[in-house]
Write a structure and sequence with these properties.
4 helices; 2 domains; mainly alpha
Length: about 130
Amino acid sequence: MTAHPPTTRYVVRTMLIMGVYIAINLAAIAGLFDHVNQAGQVVLALGVAVPVACQIWAVLPWLRDSDEFFRTMTAKRFLAATGLTIAVASAWGFQELYAQAPHISAAMIYPLFWAAFALVTPFVRSTRV
């Protein structure tokens, strides 16, 4: 079976982008940035956010270069995953505010979105609204 060219390009972009994301985070976890001044910490935080933005950007040409059915299905899955992510993040935020739940970093919203995307994908199987 031959790979779908837009998907192949998307996978390559994703691997490169996530490689940078993982490398920066592993370096931070290993303590390589522990002695960085305040300005450096801001640059590091923004540096980790750049691959997240690039990953979101990588989806756009993937959708643009795909057929209408794939584009519609993926858009519906993104909407469903976004809604689920907002609902879970809001519910947890209210738990933090009113029920003394432990704080979870907002940086976890990005992986939560992709987990939600994986969760909703098998259930969004039609282009009908």
